[in-house]
Amino acid sequence: MNDIDSEVLPLSQGFWALLKRDLVLAFRQRGDMINPLFFFVMVISLFPLGVGPEASQLQKMAPGIIWIAALLSTLLAVDSLFRQDFDDGALELLLLSPHPLFVLVSAKVFAHWLVTSVPLIIASPFLGVMLFLEGEVLGVVMLTLLIGTPILSMISAIGAALTVGLRKGGVLIAIIALPLYVPVLIFGTSAIQAASIELPYIGQLAYLAALLAIAVTFAPFAIAAGLRVSVSG
Amino acid sequence: MSLWDSITRLYHKFGSPKYFYELSGKLLPWFLGLTVLTLIPGVIWGLGFAPIDEEQGHSYRIIFIHVPSASIAMGGYVMMAVASAIGIIWKMKMAEMVAKAIAPIGASFTFLCLVTGAIWGKPTWNTWWVWDARLTSMLVLLFLYIGFIALQNAIENPASAAKASGILAIVGVVNLPIIKYSVNWWNTLHQPATLKITESSAIDPSMLYPLLLSITGFYCLFGLLVLLATRNEVLTREQRSRWVQQEVMK
Question: What is the pLDDT of residue A217?
C-alpha cells in the first residue's frame, strides 16, 4: 500500500502536469486552437453587414456584439474540452486518480481557457476599433473579457461534462449553458457601456469578479459530478 | 420505536415506486376534488365578480391566471431542484421521477405566465412585450426548464438521464437568484409584487381573496398533474417489474 502511495504525485504537481499535458496537446493541434478566434472575428464582422455600417449605431451596439460573439465562440470551443479524453479513455483514468476530481477538472478548464479564450481577449481591442470604440473603452473591453470569459468557460464546461457521453453534444450544450450566461453578459456589456459614456465602471467589474469567484468555487464540483455521470452511464 | 426510525421507515416506503403508485392512486380523487373546489370558484369569482380596478378596468382580471402561474413557474423549478437533489444525494429513484414529471408541467405554467403577461401588457403598457426585468427573468426561467427537458430527452439510460439533469437543476437553482438579481439591476418596469408575505399586500381584500383562492386552486391542479405524470413515469420505468405488469393487465 505504501509503495503505491509513494508513487502518487502530490496534488499540486498533478494539477500542473495535467495543465501542461492539455497545453501540449492543444499546441500540437493548432488548427483547433485558432478556430474559435476566427469564429469570433467572423461573427463580429457579420454584424456591420447585417445592421448597417453607421459608426454611431455600431459604437452603441459594440459591447453587445463583442460579448455575444465571445460567448458563442466559448460555446463552440467547449465541445472539444472532454471529447477527446472521453473517446480515448483518458477521462476514465482521470476519474480513477487518487486526487480529488474537482481539482483536476479545474486544471483542464484552465488550460482550455488559456488556449481558446486568451486569443479572443488579445484580439478584442482590434475588433473594438473596427466597431468604433475608442481609447480607454478598449481597455475596459479587454478587462471585462479577462474577468468574464473564465466564468463562461466554467459554465460551459458543466454543459460539456453533462453531455460528453452523447454523440450530439453541440446544440444541447448551448441550450444548457446559454441561460446561465445571462448575468455575465449583463455585467460585461454594461461595464463597457458605462465606460463609453465616461461613467464609473468599477461596480460592474466588481460584480463580474464576484461571479468569477462563485464560478471558480462551485463549478468544478458540478463539472466533476457531471463527468462521473457521463462516464459511468 | 423512536421518531427518527419512523421517519426513515416512511422515507423508505416513499422511495418504493410500488408504494408510491398505490398511495398516489388513493390521493388522486382528493387532489381532483380539491382542485375542483378551489380552482373553479376562485377563477369564476376573480374573472366574474371581483370589483373593477380603478386604473386598469377589467383588464386587470387576468391577474387571477397570471399570478398563480408565475408562482408555480418559480415554485415548480425549486421543487424540481429539491427533488433532484434528494435523488442525487440519497439515490432515491422516486425523487428523480418526480423531478422529471415536474419539468414539462412547470415549463407549461411558465409559458402560460408569459402569455397572460403579454395579453395583460397590451392594454396596460400598449405593447405585447417589454424587456423588463421580471419578464426577462421569466423567459430565462423557461429556458432553464427547456435545458432540463432537453438533457432528459437526450440521454437514453433513465438513471443517468436523471442524474445528469438533476445536476443541471441544482446548478440552475443556484443561478436563479443571481440571474434574477442581475436582470433586475439591468432594467425594471413591471409593477412591484402584488402579494407580500412579510408586509400587508398592496391589494384590496375583495380582490385578494379570489386571488388567494385561485392560487390555491392552481397549486392543487399542479399537484394533481404532477401526481398523474409521476404515476406514468413509474409505470414506464418499472415496466419490467411484476406488479406493473399485473397493474397494466388488470
Answer: 94
* Contact residues, chain B, for A225 at CB < 8 Å: 88, 167
A168: phi then psi, degrees, rounded to nearest 5: -110, 90
Chain B: residues touching A (Cβ < 8 Å):
88, 140, 143-144, 146-147, 150-151, 154-155, 157, 159-160, 163-164, 167-168, 170-172, 174-175, 178-179, 181-183, 185-186
Query: What are the residue ranges spanned by the domains of chain A?
Result: 2-232
Residue B13 lies in a domain: no
3-state DSSP helix/strand/coil % of chain B, to nearest 5: 80, 0, 20
Would B90 be classed as within a structural domain? yes
Lowest mean pLDDT among A86-90, A223-227, B188-192: B188-192
Question: In this structure, what are the phi and psi dihedrals at residue A117, rounded to the nearest 5 degrees?
Answer: -95, -35
* Nearest-angstrom CA–CA distance, B250 and B246: 6
Domain assignment of residue B232, given as a range: 23-51+60-249
Cell of A51: 445592421
pTM, rounded to two decimals = 0.89
Please compute Rg for chain A using Cα positions.
19
Q: Using the beta-carbon criterion (under 8 Å), do B168 and A230 form an inter-chain contact?
A: no
Binary contact (B167, A225; C-beta < 8 A): yes
pLDDT value of position A5: 54
SS3 A7: helix
ipTM > 0.85 (yes/no): yes
Count up the domains in chain B and report the number. Answer: 1
